[in-house]
Structures are given as C-alpha cells and as structure tokens.
Amino acid sequence: MKRFFSYLKPYKKDAILAILCIEAETVFELVIPLVMASIVDIGVANGDRRYIITRGIQMILLALISLVLGQGSAIYAARCGQGLGAEIRKAQFAKLQQFSFANTDHFSSSSLVTRLTSDVTAIQNTVSTSMRPGFRSPAMMLTAMTASFLINPKLATVFLVAAPTLGFLLFLIISHVRPLYTVMQGSIDMVNRIIQENLTAIRVVKSYVRGGHEISKFEEVNENLQHTAENSFRLAALNMPAMQFVMYSTILAILWFGGKLTSIGGIKVGELTGFLSYVLQVLNSLMMFSNVFLMTTRALASWKRITEVLDEEIDIKEDRAQDIRVTKGDIRFEHVSFKYNLNAKEHVLTDISFHIKPGQTVGILGQTGAAKTTLVQLIPRLYEATEGTVWVDGYPVYEYPLKGLRDSIAMVLQKNTLFSGTVRENLLWGKEDATEEEIARACSIACVDEFLSRLENGLDTDLGQGGVNVSGGQKQRLCIARAVLKAPKVLILDDSTSAVDTATEAKIQQGLAESLPDTTKIIIAQRITSVIHADQILILEDGRLAGQGTHEELLASNSIYQEIYYSQQEGGNL
Q: Distance between CA atoms of 477 and 546, rounded to whole angstroms?
C-alpha cells in the first residue's frame, strides 16, 4: 500500500480538500436532526411560530452549506481518482518500456492491455466514488450513534445487535465475492485476446471463411465472462437486501420500544423523531460503507494484477554498463547458448561461436525454427545469453548502456511494423532530425522511391494503423529505409526482403553495399540468392552452428548448404 499511496502523492492536496469537504458536510448534516427535534419539542409544542421560522431558516442554511461542500468533495475526489489512475497507467507503461522480450513473454499482450485499462479504471473509480462514503460514513455513524446514546441510552442499545449482524453478513459476502473479481479480470483478458487476434488477422479470417469459427470462439469466452460477472455481481447484490433487512428490523424494534417509552413518558415525541433520523443515518452509513468494501475488494484484485507488472524483475540490467559506445561494428560470439526459460531442459541455441569483422556482410541460413532470429536478437540484448558471451567491438554487450547499444544497431524485424501516421513520420523513427536529402537517400537505397510517387500524398501519405494501405513488399522497403536512415554501425535484416522480387532485392543489396560500406550487415534469408555474395555465411540447424564460410566453400563441403542450394535451383529460385 506504500507504493499505492506514492502514486497518490501528486494529488495529495485534492485528497485532503476532498476529505475536509466530506467531514464538514457530515457535521452540518448531523446538526439538522437536532434543529428539527427542537422545532417539534419547543416551537410546535409551545406554538411559537417565530421560533419555528428561525429554526427553519437555520435548517435551510445548513442544507445549502452541505450542498456546496458535497459538490466540492465530488470535484476533488474525481480529480484525485482520475489523477491516481493516470499515474498508475504511466508507471505501468514506463515499466513496459523496460521489459526485455523475455519479460514481455511472461504476459500476453491482451492481459497487459487489460491491466493498463480495465484494472486501472476499477481502481480510479473506487477512489473517485468511494472517497465520499468511505470518509463520510464512519464520521456520520459515530456521531449519530453518540447523539442517539445522548438522547436515550436504553433505546440506543439496539445498535449493539444491529452493527455486529451487519458486519457478519458483509464478511460472508466479501469472502465469497473477492476471488470471483480476480477470475473476472482474467476473463476480460481472454475476451481482449480473441478480439485482438481477430482484428490483427482479419484478412486471414476472411480469406479462409472462418468468420463462423471466430464467432463461436468469441461467444465461448464472452459467455464465460458473462457468467463470471453474473456470479460476482449476484453475490455483491446480496449486500443491499442484507443491509435493508437489518435496517428495517432495527427501525421496527425502535418503533416498538420507543412507542412504549413514549406512552410512559420515557422519551418525548421530538426526541423519538430525532432518534429515528439518527438511526436512519447510522444504518445508511453502514450500507454505504458496505458498498465501499465491495468496491475496494474489486480494486484490490485489480491492484494485485497491476503490481505483478510493476514487480516484474527486469532480466536485462545495466548494472555493469560503462561509458562506451559502438564505433566499428565488430561482433564475436564466444560459446553462446540460450534458452527462453532457465528451467527448460534444452537450449534454443547451443555453443555458438563465430566472428564478424567490421564492415562485413554475413548471411544466416537455416530451416524454419533453427533459431536464426533469436541469434541476432542477442546482439542488441533484446534477449540475454544464458551461457557464453556476445562481444561488440571487443566489449561484452552487457558493458554497453542499452540505449547506446541499440542506437548503434538497426534491426528490420521479420514482422514488419509500421505505426499510425504518415510515411515521413514512420521514416523519422530512424532519425528524428533527418533532412529531406537524408530521407530521399534512404528511400533510394531501399527502393522506396519506386512507389513513393504513386502514393496519394507522397511522404505525407497517411499509412493508417499498421500500414494497411501499402503492400507487404512496400512495407518491407519502408522498414529498410527507416533502418538505413539511422546510419547504424550494425544493420540486421531478418528475412526483410522476402516479399520483394529478386530484381528489387538485388538493387537494395547493391544500394546497401555502396552507401553503407563501413556498416556491418547481417542478413537472415530463406533464399541463397539473398546471401550468395556475402563475405561469410552461417548455417544454423536445430540451434547449432552447422557450417561457416563463403558460398563456394559451403557449396563444396557442407551437405546442408548443398541441399538448400540444389532444392532452390530446382524450384527456380537460383
């Protein structure tokens, strides 16, 4: 809870003002029944009209002051709640930016979205709406009970039965509903996951005519969420009848015993009227407080899920970093092994060793699942090597500050990602202050200029979410241009020309060789033609280095390379 309140610190002033308004409003409202009792017992009993009017005006003023204070408390509580939600979202998102790929793998993307939205909303709504009853109810309840005992101690003993009964019923409800709230948030995760998958792969769904299948999948998780929510709210709804049962039972008991006391002169009618007002305030306070408990229960379930993200230990740290930067692009793997899960029996990469000199072009070939992508992701420390050391310019990668290391390495990932915005805005991810000449040069190298003029507004064409209005090949070339604009010391192309024709691919490779002669280039490819002119080619098989050399050397001595070469020759890829 100390961490929770740390996020509330920027809105401490709003929280204090909200509490002061709530408590002041409570005091003014509690005075009203006393004034009303005096009107009945003095003004009405003595027929004093002036007294009745004077006290009546006092009641109106007290009510108006309470109204203003209530409005103030609502405004400050809303600021406090919404501000708290914003701070928690900001903290979660900042933590996500520190995640390595391994950290991200611990959570599904749909679950992270739910934790950033639905779970935070549950907390901020609890603070905004529960602050008033949460602080008002105890003060009102204690003050009203004190006033009730002052009016008639014997009659007030009814509370000694009503309050424990109410507390016991509330405990039973909360103990059963709390686990269901956690399950319900998990069900929201599943609904978000199905929606996200469907929207991401909508073209595949339509091309395979699997709309019906997707609908049935969604109905299953949606119904699961519905049933979980119904069970949760069904139990929570028992709170109201339980409170009303205790409330009306208490009122009946007071009317029964109060009526007898009135008949024997033990209590005046005005006192009984005021006493009943305080009883209603006490019971209403208990009812409001019970609702606060229920909302807090859901908020605590959400807060637990949020802390799982905030407490996730970042596995890639900078505790050994020095003030160094990449200057040449020399890369060396020394007996490197890797596995995603430290408890896994087998490694994904096993005992990998090789050396890439600055400015060299290196190709990586291998079957699907040979861990080619995983291998190159160890260079910018997107994953951390489990065993062995990855060296860049003679320093272990863990001695580089992460920002400096990754700034010097440009990766065009296997999955081409463009962001909402214009072509220009996407290219500027490579270099924020790039000039028009630099953008034009990068577009020329990546052959973007071949289709740029056909776009409606050229560089200022809006690409939409994920670049939906450009083809796969165009998307790949834009991603390459973005990487080139970065002017990196190391350029990694992860099967990033698979959607372009061989002629365009040759132009891109020629442009990279001529324009970035000092940049170390690592090319992961499926086609041998993509790497045939590389300075050296690495062959991966089942996470092991199965061959290393030039095209001629491997063609003469490596059976795996020979198999790939001749199969592609027969398929017309060479």
A: 31
For 112-134, the pLDDT digits (tens) are: 888 888 889 888 888 888 887 88
User: What is the average pLDDT score of the chain?
Assistant: 83
Phi, psi of 544 (to 5 degrees): -120, 150
What letter would DSSP give residue 132? H
What pLDDT, on the 0 to 100 scale, is given for residue 22? Answer: 85
CB-based burial, 344-371: b 16+ in 10 Å, e otherwise: eeebbbbebebebebbbbbbbbbeeebb
Q: For residue 151, what are the contacts with CB-CB under 8 A and spacing of at least 6?
A: 267, 271, 274, 275, 278
Query: Is residue 423 within 8 Å of residue 461, measured between CB atoms?
Result: yes
| Concatenated DSSP letters of 167-207 | HHHHHHHHHHHHHHHHHHHHHHHHHHHHHHHHHHTHHHHHH
Take residue 473 and report the two structure tokens written for it.
């090949």
- Token code pair at residue 134: 């949460």
What does the pLDDT read at residue 537?
Answer: 94
277/258 Cα distance (integer angstroms): 13
303-358 residue pLDDT tens? 888 898 898 888 888 888 898 999 999 999 999 999 988 788 889 999 999 999 99
Contacts (Cβ under 8 Å, ≥6 apart) of 9:
none
How many other C-beta atoms lie within 10 A of the C-beta of residue 7?
19
Q: Is the distance from CB of 147 to CB of 26 less than 8 angstroms? A: no
365 three-class SS: strand
**111: exposed, middle or buried (Cβ count in 10 Å: 0-12, 13-18, 19+):** buried
User: CA-to-CA distance for 180 and 157, rounded, in angstroms?
Assistant: 37
Q: What's the CA gap between 530 and 497, in Å, rounded? A: 8
The residues facing 336 across adjacent strands are 352
Q: How far, in Å, CA of 470 to CA of 412, rounded?
A: 17
The mean pLDDT of 463-486, rounded to a whole number, is: 83
- Cα 264 to the center of its chain, rounded Å: 66
